[in-house]
Design brief:
The protein is built from eleven helices and 19 strands. It is of the alpha+beta class.
Length: 441
C-alpha cells in the first residue's frame, strides 16, 4: 500500500487532471498487464491520419522571429512543480517514480510532478509492460523546478538525416487540456497543429502526416493550452534536438512502414533513435518511412516522397500491414513490382528487405492491435519468396523469426514492432550489405 501522501500534494493530485501522472498499486500478480497502459503509439489510425492532414494550416506568408520570447499571459501555477528527464531504457514501456511517499507512473522518459517540497527526494525505475523491474535508480539527466515551458524529447540531433515524416514529442504537462505545435522553416511558421482536446488522452507525441521535403533549416516547438486555447506555458525552447536541416541528393534512402519509420516498446515514438534501425547502420540512410502504410500506400506516395532526394539506392521494406489487413500476397507483390519499375525508370537501385514476422500470441496478450488472419504466414512467405528472387535483396525476416515462423517474443513487446534488439539486427544487416556494395564500387 502507498504511504500517506502529504496533505498539500494529496489535494493537488485529487483535484487535478494528471494525464500521464497516475497513482498505482503494486499487483500481487506481476504478470498481470496494467489496464491503464496508453494506446500503442506505434500503430497509426488511418482516420486520425486524414483528420491530421485536414487540420494542418499553412502560414508561409506569416513571418515571425522564432527566438522572440512568447508574450502571452501564461497561467500561473499555484503548486510547486518538479520536472525530471532521463534517458530511455531499452524495452521499458513505463517508469515508476517514488516521491514523497507516493508511487507515480510515466510513459515518457520524463515527468512533471506537483510537490509540496521542491527538494523532495525521489527515485525512478524502468519497468516492462507487466511491471517487471528492468533498471533500478535510473540516472536523471535534467531536473527543472517550476518550469515555464515544455521540455521536448525529440532526438533529431542524433539522426544522420531527419525523417520526412517527423514525430514531435515532449514531456506532458499534468494540467494541460491539449497542445499547440508549430513547425518553423527559415524563420517562418509553415505549419500549426493542435492535439486532441482530451485531458485523459496520452498526449506526449504528434505524428506529422505531411512530409517535410523542401530544403532548408527547420525547428519545431510546442506549448500547453487550456480548454479555452489559453496558453499554460511558453513555447518550448529551440535546441539542437528540436532542429534539423533538409537536403536533397541523398545517396541512400529507406522506404517503408512503421518498421522503417521507427519507435518501439509501445510508448516510445520514432523521434527516439534507440528504436530506429537506421541508427544501427554505420552508413547514413535517410528515413522515408511512414507508420501504418500498406504496399499500396507506399506505391502511391513514391513520386512525391522519394524523387526529391534522387537516391542511388532505395531500401524497401513493406508488406507487414498488408498481411495483417488480409491483403493477399500476390496483391502486395504487384505493388512491389510497380515500386521496382518506378525505381528503374528513375535510375534508382531498389533493394528489397523481407517483411518482418509478427507474433499473434503476443498481440493477443496485450490487446493493442487487431489480430492477424490465420493464414498471414502464407502471404508473408509469398512476399518473401518474390523478394528473394530479386537482383538485390536483404533477408532480415530470417533473423527475427522463431521456430514457429513468428516474431521472436524477446524482440517485441507488442508482437508487431521489433524493439531495440530487433532494430539493431535490421540495421546491422543493412550495414553489412552496404559494406559489400561499396567495396565493389
Amino acid at each position: 500500500m502507498l504511504k500517506v501522501v502529504p496533505i498539500a500534494l494529496a489535494i493537488i493530485l485529487c483535484i487535478s487532471n494528471l494525464g500521464f501522472i497516475e497513482f498505482v498499486k503494486h499487483s500481487d500478480n506481476q504478470n498481470e498487464i496494467d489496464a491503464s497502459i496508453p494506446r500503442n503509439h506505434l500503430t497509426q489510425n488511418k482516420n486520425a491520419q486524414a483528420a491530421t492532414i485536414n487540420q494542418v494550416q499553412n502560414f508561409e506568408d506569416v513571418t515571425e522571429n522564432p527566438a522572440q520570447e512568447d508574450k502571452a499571459a501564461v497561467a500561473q501555477r499555484e503548486e510547486n512543480i518538479l520536472r525530471l528527464y532521463w534517458d530511455n531504457v531499452p524495452n521499458a514501456v513505463k517508469y515508476e517514480i517514488l516521491i514523497e511517499g507516493a508511487t507515480l507512473i510515466a510513459y515518457t522518459n520524463g515527468i512533471e510532478i506537483p510537490v509540496s517540497d521542491i527538494g523532495a527526494k525521489f527515485q525512478v525505475n524502468a519497468l516492462s509492460l507487466d511491471g517487471i523491474l528492468l533498471e533500478n535508480k535510473i540516472p536523471i539527466r535534467e531536473i527543472d523546478t517550476n518550469p515555464t515551458s515544455l521540455r521536448t524529447t525529440t532526438e533529431f540531433d542524433k539522426m544522420a538525416y531527419p525523417p520526412i515524416y517527423p514525430v514531435y514529442s515532449w514531456i506532458p504537462m499534468n494540467s494541460a487540456d491539449h497542445y499547440e505545435i508549430e513547425l518553423i522553416k527559415d524563420g517562418k511558421i509553415i505549419r500549426r497543429y493542435f492535439t486532441d482536446s482530451n485531458p485523459q488522452d496520452d498526449n506526449f507525441d504528434f505524428y506529422d502526416k505531411t512530409p517535410v521535403l523542401d530544403e532548408g533549416e527547420y525547428f519545431w516547438r510546442v506549448r500547453a493550452l487550456t480548454n479555452d486555447d489559453e496558453p499554460l506555458t511558453n513555447w518550448s525552447e529551440k535546441s539542437e534536438s528540436s532542429s534539423f536541416e533538409v537536403k536533397h541528393q541523398i545517396r541512400f534512402c529507406a522506404l517503408g512502414d512503421s518498421i522503417t519509420h521507427g519507435g518501439g516498446s509501445i510508448s516510445v515514438p520514432p523521434s527516439t533513435v534507440l528504436y530506429n534501425w537506421e541508427t544501427y547502420c554505420a552508413i547514413p540512410v535517410k528515413n522515408l518511412g511512414r507508420s501504418g502504410d500498406t504496399t499500396a500506400e507506399i506505391l502511391e506516395r513514391f513520386d512525391n516522397d522519394v524523387l526529391p532526394f534522387r537516391p542511388e539506392v532505395l531500401f524497401i521494406m513493406a508488406g507487414v500491414n498488408d498481411y495483417r489487413a488480409k491483403i493477399l500476397g500476390w496483391e502486395s507483390v504487384e505493388n512491389l513490382v510497380a515500386i521496382k519499375n518506378k525505381c528503374h525508370f528513375n535510375g534508382i537501385k531498389p533493394v528489397f528487405l523481407t517483411p518482418t514476422p509478427i507474433n499473434p500470441a503476443q498481440i493477443r496478450k496485450i490487446n493493442f492491435i487487431d489480430m492477424p488472419p490465420d493464414d498471414w504466414q502464407e502471404h508473408q512467405k509469398f512476399i518473401c519468396n518474390w523478394i528473394k528472387a530479386q537482383e538485390y535483396f536483404i533477408d532480415v525476416n530470417e533473423k527475427l523469426t522463431d521456430a514457429d515462423g513468428n516474431l521472436m517474443e524477446n524482440l517485441s513487446v507488442d508482437g508487431l514492432h521489433p524493439d531495440a534488439d530487433g532494430k539493431k539486427l535490421i540495421g546491422e544487416t543493412v550495414a553489412a550489405w552496404l559494406d559489400n556494395y561499396l567495396s565493389l564500387k
